[in-house]
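Worked example 3. Consider a protein that binds FE2/S2 (inorganic) cluster.
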Amino acid sequence: MSEEQRTLLLRIRRYSPEEGTRRYQEYRLPFNKDKVLLDYLNHINDKLDGSLAFRWSCRMGVCGSCGAMVNGTPKLTCSTFVKDLRSEEVIIEPLENFPVIKDLVVDIRDFVDKLRKVSAWLMVDKERSLEEGEYPQTPGEQAKYSKTSMCINCALCYSACPVYGEDRKFIGPAAIALAYRYNNDSRDTGMVQRLRVLSGMRGLPECSLVEGCTAVCPKGVDPVAAIKKSRIQLDEIRNKGSSTET
Ligand code: FES
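Given these inputs, the predicted complex is written out as structure tokens:
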């Protein structure tokens, strides 16, 4: 079959909050190997059905807002080329493990709360004045956390996490990875505060190291590695504490 004759069948899960109904809606569109799934969603929204709800912003894998289940796997729709799909039928559903607001739009407030809980930002004991200038850091110091700093808060890892699926109180992969990112930043002073949160039962101990988070991360953050390293840091701090007590 020539490229022009090929089609892509999209089965999109729809949810209407007004009617409380769930259904799959099909759209058959020309196959274009150069297009990503977000292009198809935008085409449907612009030309066929303006009621289809989904999130997106940057179209370049940076804002983290366009996540959805694509044939059962959490993916960024703006980074998923149709030529890379194994079939010419694709099922698009809202991200798993989050309440659905409408169609592909999910409620990520719990995810944002988790980021707040671990203080996923730079904490400094004493802020420098403008006169004192910036907070200097060497390339070597920056390299210690650069991988985890790639996180774009897309929440795909929460959607792939079986532990979070079972227990919404689990602090979750991105929050732990971002806690690791700031804990290992030479400018930061918030490690003890973050590890206090992570050491609780719903923190580091609860992860079962299934690695679903690492497998789906579109930025190669590797939350599982951050979890393992954070456990080591926590043990070191505890051991230091017990050795100074004796
Ligand atoms: S639209 Fe921004 S990451 Fe996909």
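Take a moment to read the result before moving on. The chain has two domains: 7-106, 109-245. Residues 56-59, 61-66, 76, 78 surround FE2/S2 (inorganic) cluster (CB under 6 Å).
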